[in-house]
Amino acid sequence: MQLSGTPKPIETYEKEALEHRLDLSALIYQSRAAAVAIGCLQFVHRMDLVSKLNVNDPMVQQRVLRLQHQLIAHGEPANIALQKAWNSLDGLVMKQAGILSYMDVFLYLGLLFLACIPFILMVRENKGQRGPAAGMH
What we know:
Layout: H1 10-52, H2 58-73, H3 78-128
């Protein structure tokens, strides 16, 4: 920050704006990459969860029937209520798949962090060697 009365040259402002845009574009790129990774994991988890749902399973039928009765109680016709009940079940599956995906991402980031700890410790140990031999390479 300049305290004198002379203004900054326009090139300085242009350079700062360019650096800010580059930082912002890198952040957006990383956010998109994370979103794609979570989306792919969510798709995998959704397929896994859906494969475990069986239409003939009494628990699934009871759940859909309960959802249908709730919708009928709110004034929906029976056929539309059944379709909405199945859509609601699909929404529950998507919610669970999203939670599992975020759990996977946090697990992978934690493992990556643990894998970086030995490298951080090696860098710290090399900084600690300040004797005459440390400068002779």
